[in-house]
Amino acid sequence: MKPAFRNAAIVYCSPAESTRHVAEVIRNTLKELDVQVEVLDMAKRGDSASVLSKIKAACEDICLFIGSPVYVNHALPRVTAFISELPESARAKAVPFVTWGGACSGVALWEMGKMLLEKGYQVAGAAKVMALHSMMWRFDKPIGEGRPNAEDDQMIRDMVTKVAKGEAKGIALSDLAYQPESAREEMEKSSLAMAKSHMPQRTVNEERCTQCNICADVCPVEAVAFSPYPEFGDHCISCFNCVRECPEDAIEADFSPLDARIRAKAKQFDEQPLSQIFL
Q1: Which residues pair with 12 in a beta bridge?
Q2: Peptide bond connecting 148 to the previous residue in cis, omega within 30 degrees of 0
Q3: Which pLDDT does position 89 carry in this prediction?
Q4: Which domains does the chain possess?
Q5: What is the mean pLDDT of each run of 10 residues along the chain (279 residues)?
Q6: How far apart are CA 46 and CA 220, in angstroms?
Q7: Collapsing DSSP states into helix, strand and coil, what is residue 66?
Q8: Which residues, listed in sequence order, are joined to residue 205 by a DSSP beta bridge?
Q9: Alpha-carbon distances of 39 from 35, 76, 86, 105, 158, rounded to whole Å
């Protein structure tokens, strides 16, 4: 069957690799359906201007898949900034997707869908996918361990196939407002900037640090500078890749208070289903 569109763009930011995993499942599925795919990983300093230009050139015959992890109830600023730069289109399709760590998926999908609709894009589908919580990698039995899994991957393949074959007729913004209304209002007020004061504070052990620059290389938003040791800019998104990837364990942070806090939030919201597609 001829696909409903000939071109697709997959744009995402993935500090902890889970969103990248979903993006790769989308890419492989589109390739199997003979759709031409352009991929932009915003954590790898890709050329967003070039991708925006290609989207504009093919906006009559393209579907944009745009993904983000959920950070403090929202999509990453780099992702929403990309959506704000999209050309307006009355015929292009879009599929927002998020990965979340089991505490709360927030209002990220709703906000992304709203921005895309305001640009004129038809939201053909959407997905939230359970993933390992990015701040629990040091804990025993972390929330989301082993996710995304094979069932999540198949769910995404099924969604992409239906969208590409024209079987998905589009969703309303209200479909993405799945959080309880009272909770959603509080989620909309939250922000990464407000949450930073409650997150682990980093210190650099100068005796261990070899100034290898790996922490800067793995920072998805170029927030690490050396003077002469690592310093963290205000635009840091607190992904803690610098802590996780430092080969010398020179960037130190105490994550122990987070375990109980994250598990309590997951119990409070008890969000079900953990992974879900919207068509």
Answers
A1: 41, 67
A2: yes
A3: 87
A4: 7-182+272-278 (3.40.50.360), 201-253 (3.30.70.20)
A5: 90 96 98 96 83 89 97 96 93 96 97 97 97 94 97 98 94 96 91 89 96 96 95 94 97 95 94 97
A6: 11
A7: strand
A8: none
A9: 12, 18, 15, 24, 20
